[in-house]
């Protein structure tokens, strides 16, 4: 039930209509992680695939996303965090009534970006150090070669004496 498309399919016999219950439509519920689990006693019960929150007895003014957030504030579906949820492609019909999860996602992305940037800066610094060491080593080798050449020519000169 981690796929929104599969969750949406469970709502085939959803007892409410969009006009009577605009905050608990199959599209809203499936997008928020819920699938339909009706029982004879609870004909409109839905369950979040991640946090197992069960909700039902919907009233006309109920807002599924708000109730999910209130009763299960740490659910990654509420927070908009990665949790194996596969979103429906082309979600244009899902209204973004609340931009809080998107906002949190953005903060999450920015935090990761800052961490990566720090890592890149640290790498650049050590690369610069390594470059300097290589340059020093090349200079040292040249110097040694020159000294060796001087010594060799000195020995040759002495031999020829
Ligand atoms: Zn949940």
TrEMBL record:
SMART domains tied to this protein: BIR (SM00238)
The keyword Membrane is assigned to this record: no
Pfam families in UniProt: BIR (PF00653)
Keyword annotations of the record: Coiled coil, Metal-binding, Zinc
Record flagged with keyword Nucleus: no
GO molecular function per UniProt: metal ion binding
Coiled-coil segments on the chain, per record: 113-147
Protein name (database record): Uncharacterized protein
């Amino acid at each position: 039930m981690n796929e929104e498309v599969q969750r949406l399919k469970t709502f085939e016999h959803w007892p409410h209509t969009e006009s009577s219950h605009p905050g608990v439509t199959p599209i809203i519920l499936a997008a928020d992680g819920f699938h339909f689990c009706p029982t004879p006693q609870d004909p409109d019960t839905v369950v979040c695939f991640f946090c197992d929150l069960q909700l039902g007895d919907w009233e006309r003014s109920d807002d599924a996303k708000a109730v999910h957030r209130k009763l299960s504030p740490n659910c990654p579906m509420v927070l908009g965090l990665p949790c194996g949820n596969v979103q429906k492609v082309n979600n244009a019909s899902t209204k973004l009534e609340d931009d809080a999860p998107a906002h949190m996602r953005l903060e999450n992305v920015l935090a990761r970006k800052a961490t990566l940037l720090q890592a890149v800066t640290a790498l650049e610094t050590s690369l610069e150090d390594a470059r300097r060491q290589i340059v020093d080593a090349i200079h040292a080798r040249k110097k040694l070669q020159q000294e060796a050449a001087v010594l060799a020519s000195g020995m040759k000169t002495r031999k020829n004496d």
